[in-house]
Amino acid sequence: MSASAVLLVLAASFGHALWNARTHSGADRLGTLVVSYYVGALWLTPWIVLDPPFEVWWLLLTSGLLHASYITALAAAYDRGALAVAYPVARGSAPLVVAALGIWLLDQVPTPFTVVGAVLVAIGLVMIGNVGWNTGQRQSLALALATGAVIGGYTLVDARAVEDVNGWAFFAMSSYLGATFAIIGNRLPIERLRASLRSGASVGLASSTSYALILLAYTRADAANVATLRSTSILFGLALVPRTLTRPLVVGAVVTVVGVALVTL
Length: 265
Description:
The chain is an all-alpha fold. Helix content is 82%, strand content 0%. The chain contains 13 helices and no strands. The model has no long low-confidence stretch (mean pLDDT 87).
């Protein structure tokens, strides 16, 4: 990878960890995430007008429902546990789910790197999960794993959709749908959205900027290398909460990152 691509991915990874930390520290995590989805989609709206993705409406609806589930599960995980536990588990389990679904649904043959990486991810997540389990964060762990599973689901759906339609338009539309479905499913009152405007705007700008940086990195480096380096967001996430760190958390996170790197090669 070129130096510029590395810097782009590291900046995006830090931005991803930063907006998750901002969400976790907020008073209303669910409201913040819903607003952030609208903010992130807003600047991509012209692509919906120029190249509407409605021909794959079934994928749009599926992606919207999965994104709504992601918003709900991540907010609930952060409500019930520490960032140092929930974030690495949610982030680290997602590539494992993608790999497993790819093998199951797409008949992909796992490489030796995938197998070794999956084992390392499992070991790392067990180490992190053990910390959460022993500190009473069991619900957060379950919700973080559910978040990782949902990420894996919408990753495959979105990847399939962009084979047929404009990726920017599809991402914007699925974000609008995801946020709207989350409001309906959680019966979120408008007052909570208004109260979350400031935090949601900052999270939305950070998350959409991180996404844009990753897309730019894809133009300068191989997608597998970009995906591998993106796993450093787990380490950035831990670095943002140094007071809550313990040796098992740090070791578990490092093992998870190495495993994710191997799975995504």
